[in-house]
Specification:
Nuclear Transport Factor 2, Chain: A; single chain; about 20% helix; 8-stranded mixed beta sheet; DUF2787 family protein; DUF2787
Length: about 140
Amino acid sequence: MKTEMLIHQFNINLPISPAFIHVIYSELSHWPDYSASRSVVINFRDDDYSSENGGFHPVEIRLIKQNEEWHFDYLTDFSYMGHPYPELEKEFDVSWSQGYVWHFMMGDMKIEDGEELFELWQRNFIRYWKAKIYTVITSWD
């Protein structure tokens, strides 16, 4: 993906670090012709993550194109929850298109309260990505 592509925020404005944007650009750089696409979903997976052994949570990020500009749509961090049969469920969810930040222990959060959590999540995610924890799958629509 060309580095001149900009990713905008709408409905909510969170402190997105240049390093986080770099992760997205790096993963999308394998796709030089994205002009006909309307959306992209990037899935980050730790192949060893399981309910029994733990590991690094799967993350899904979706970008959408509106008026020839790319925007964040959502970011979801999943984890195994429940006993005796754990299921993969949302743990942390940011939806720019719907205008909310949500955490499974706190529910819907005020945007300003979600900023700190998002910054912490972002720093950890970037560290895991740099450590090559994730297998990444990109899907274009």
